[in-house]
Write a structure and sequence with these properties.
Elements (H helix, E strand, L loop, with lengths): L2 H35 L4 E7 L14 E7 L11 H6 L44 E6 L15 E11 L5 E17 L15 E6 L1 H13 L1 E6 L13 E2 H5 L3 H57 L27 E8 L2 E8 L3
Antiparallel strand pairs: 1-2, 3-6, 4-5, 4-7, 5-6, 5-8, 9-10
Amino acid sequence: MRANTVIMVFLAGVFGVLAVVLANIWLANQRNAMAQTGDVPRDTVVVATVALKFGDTLSADKLRQVAWPSGAVPAGAFKTIDELLTKDLPVGGGTKQALQAIGINEPVLATKITGPGQRATLSAVLGEGMKAVSIRVNDVLGVAGFVFPGDRVDVLLTRTVRSEDGADQSFVDVLLQSMKVLAVDQVADESKDSPTVVKSVTVEASTKDAQKLTLAAGAGQLSLALRQAAASKGETTERVTLSDLTGEMPADVAKRQAELDKQAATDAAAAAERQRAEDERKRADDKIAGLAQAVDRVGSKLDDLSKIKPAPAIASAAEVREVVKYVQPEPPTRATVGVFRGVKFETYDVPRQP
């Protein structure tokens, strides 16, 4: 047998024994840790046995007590179900309701349920000194319905103002950042997860921010920008104008607008001139038609006069009889018509109508 083979067999045996020893040591440590854990002081905590959402009434069948390490009890937790349901309630009893979504086996904390005499209303979830303000939105401005209670949004204000040179300038400012959404329409349940197109969004704001939102609602158009769930810090923003979209300066936009206005005025003047010429042509045609009708009436009267025969003269017996023969003249075949063109009078020789 070669020496290398003997060495490999020896090393394999050593490593095998070492692995067994280390495994026994690890198992012993785990047994000791478990034994020590059993000696840790324990307490009880009330948890939910069913999923609770905003407005759900708390009752004993929806809660249970579980063992919990004494040093790790969450702040605001209740030790017993009776304490949770009856603590600080007014005389005569009452009920408590959930203000936030609570999952199965999640500890029920005092901050997630109504207090003494409270109802599960929007006012119960407002922070100290905060106000609830509603913003009117639509299917686009409301992020297509993907904003839910508990989300955070930025509020954008779009305005159009007229500058000193008369040109309209549009711009967008970030009015407020990281505003907490309390409700969409009349729904304040944070467990809601299906997108819905809404007409209003209610956010939590300080008194000054509430004033800003109320004033901005009448000054321009408000829209929402949904923030990342973990992004609660503000960021540096700047105003965005049309020049940021097209690369043009406001002076260029004003110049182009002036050219468009000038072209529109020129087109309007040309249209007015065409209309005036058309009106003059119609008036001239009306005058010619009137003169033609007058000529026709004169011709008709001449025809009527030419058809009348004069009465023969009666001579006395003493008078010499004289025979007078009347020859009827032929009616004229042409007529002369005069027409005023502006201040110029022109005559035309036209065939007379029979």
